[in-house]
Amino acid sequence: MTQVPANPVRGEVSIDLGGGLIVVLRPxxxxxxxxxxETGRGMIDLARRFMDxxxxxxxxxxxxxxxxRAAGNLPPDDLGKRLLAIGIIRVMAQVGAFIAAAISxxxxxxxxxxxSV
Length: 117
Fold this sequence. Notes:
It is built from five helices and two strands, in the order E-E-H-H-H-H-H. It has helices at 29-39, 43-51, 57-70, 79-86, 88-103; strands spanning 13-18, 21-25. It has a two-stranded antiparallel sheet. Helix 2 (43-51) runs antiparallel to helix 5 (88-103) and helix 3 (57-70) crosses helix 5 (88-103). The longest helix has 16 residues, at 88-103.
């Protein structure tokens, strides 16, 4: 895993998987499409599910695995077990923040027209 810190301006989020493993999630078009295909849900639907804490473990693993690959990380084979060990609710908050940044063009508020009505 990478020890390079996440860049929130690029919409990146870090998750500490324990044991010194930190994974950076990076939004990238191909991986976001892969997440939609694997989960059968669009990004906005996934954002809602993560913010409402109703996403499944399978969805969580799919997002983390794909977004970690986008950042050049090779997620561990026991990724799901590690996510459970650090607390799936905590992870859902981090993944939700990642998806929100991905669909808004980067860090919250970076999207063109952000804050305007």
